[in-house]
Amino acid sequence: MKRRVVVTGMGAVTPIGVGMEAFWDSIRAGRIGFAPITRFDTADYKCKLAAEVKNFRPEEYMDKKAARRMDPFCQYAVAAAGEALRDAELDLEKEDAYRIGCFVGSGVGSLQAVEREYGKLLEKGPSRVSPLFVPMMISNMAAGNVSIAYGLKGKSLNVVTACATGTNSIGEAFRSVQYGELDACVAGGAESTVTPMGIAGFSALTALSESTDPERCSIPFDKERDGFVMGEGAGIVVLEELEHARKRGAHIYAEVLGYGCSSDAYHITSPAEDGAGAARAMLNALEDGGRKPEELTYINAHGTGTHHNDLFETRAVKLAFGAHAEKLRINSTKSMIGHLLGAAGAVEFITCVKTVQEGFIHATVGLRETEGEMDLNYCRKSYEEEVPFALSNSLGFGGHNTSILVGRI
User: Fold this and answer.
1) What residues contact residue 44 under an 8 Å CB cut-off, 6+ apart?
2) Coil, helix or strand at residue 276
3) Would the pTM count as exceeding 0.85?
4) How far is it, in rounded angstroms, from Cα 204 to Cα 206?
5) Is 163 part of the annotated catalytic residue set?
6) DSSP state of 4
7) To which H or E segment does residue 385 belong?
8) Has 324 been annotated as catalytic?
9) Active-site option among 74, 185, 339, 400
10) Could you report the per-residue pLDDT of 240-265, keeping only the tens digit for each?
11) Is 185 a catalytic residue?
């Protein structure tokens, strides 16, 4: 029997604010997090801008010794998870720790560790590579460190589906709670790839914007878009079985209604041109949630700002919703925070929860003029209106399509 699953806690570390209050205030104000890269010298790089996390001090969220054994993606995960657990007021001493899971994914892991230790290998030889290299590098250490930090002993997973990682992590946590494997689960994504290799690699794919204007670098659905801007951070939520949450008097933000996935089986980086895979994921999520396509009013798009993604995702929406697509409000949170890769879907899920809770649909900041087939309502302005359901899309390299549906309770 399927059990109902709700969101009882949220935490965020983002380029436009550390902590939920700062993040959501910035979303409502339409603030952007783009600026020249400070982590390394970009003189030889075509890409000059990123959306870096600012004013983050790990010692405020964990002890200094623990922080030294983590690279940024894990630090962000531990900080956001701590906020989510405090927000949920989940007293782990009163819970069966083996019934509380931890599904925190990272698409890449620590490029910082790879760059740092490979430099040592070349300069000083293999004996100088740190014994902590592997446990600081591997992507499952976000889930591992969160689990250790907070004593979460239930099912623990690191879902890796590139840019769909955060959404898949929350979706798989939803399934585990829904079918009784867990009573609650800490779930989301974390990433930090504003590094020389990270920027060089995505630049080589011609995926990154080369704009030097922070106001015109991450402009999803705009005819002048020229790629995405690398972001970083973490988004973590606490998902909980409804009756478990009610029994302890938890505050409930929203209900997770449906989860849908598909694979394009088409290309290693490009979405399917007709949008069929993404359309199927959206329809699967709606069907799973017992909702008809015409009931939906809002989609938080993957919306990266690359030529292919925005066009093909538009085709997917039209394929899935037909004439109803013209009535949908569609926005991209990446217009403010850039692309957080494995954390993107998690932060955008949080945005959807807040949208449903407050009835506020943010603008796609920087959007001026669309082109050709991209003729839907991509939210040039924000809207204050009732949003019964919100659908969040994430599309990952390799053809991973993931959608998750949340609604009011």
Assistant:
1) none
2) helix
3) yes
4) 5
5) yes
6) P
7) none
8) no
9) 339
10) 999 999 999 999 999 999 999 999 99
11) no
